[in-house]
Amino acid sequence: MKQKLTNISLTFLSIIILGVVFSLIVSLLSTLKIISIQVNDNLLLGLSLGLFFLLGLIFGLIEKKKGLLNGLLLTMIYLILIYTLNLINKDYEISSIYIILSRSLLIIVGCILGVNIKSRKSRS
Read out DSSP for 39-100? Predict the structure, then answer.
């Protein structure tokens, strides 16, 4: 259990660092008027979806088994964090539910693919 918590923490930390770096780059491009605000929003949404898939993929590669169960565990942690933050912030829209669901599905799919990629490499 201690190893799983360490793996979850390291995976979340690496994704947070990548997210901050990508957000700073996109914000810098927007500040320098290289990209518009609408492109900025769409780019950040696409990057967040990619990072959540990467979160599941990295965790699946690290854990090496039980991809669906680990994906559901990461999704539950993500949903607890999101709903805790939404209790503070009352601006809740229907479109945010779609984004939360798509991120959750990407975490699960990434975990399953990470486990399967790892198991195929070990068979060869």
Answer: HHHHHHHHHHHHHHHHHHHHHHHHH-S-HHHHHHHHHHHHHHHHHHHHHH-----HHHHHHH
